[in-house]
Design brief:
single chain, about 80 residues, mainly beta, ATP Synthase, domain 1, five-stranded mixed sheet, four-stranded antiparallel sheet, about 65% strand
Length: about 80
């Protein structure tokens, strides 16, 4: 799936070979996998884990934000 993590200042991550994204939701941590159902959710302070095929996991600290999942594309607008 294609994933973008964007802040007001910069693009933190953009990649098309991601198979898992773990996020700090306001009601608890959750994961997005390939072909996940459409979703919009609020994120709290924490870290995002991104797993790309054949690469080590990457982590991004955020202060909060929102996520949209649609047609195997994940857009995260983070602070």
């Amino acid at each position: 799936m294609f994933v973008e993590i964007v802040t007001p200042d910069e693009m933190l991550f953009s990649g098309g070979d991601v198979h898992l994204v773990q996020l700090p939701g306001v009601d608890g941590s959750f994961e997005i996998l390939n072909h996940h159902a459409p979703l919009i959710s609020i994120l709290k302070k924490g870290r995002i884990k991104v797993e790309e095929k054949g690469k080590p996991s990457r982590f991004f600290k955020i202060k909060g934000g929102v996520i949209e999942v649609l047609q195997n594309k994940v857009l995260i607008l983070a602070e």
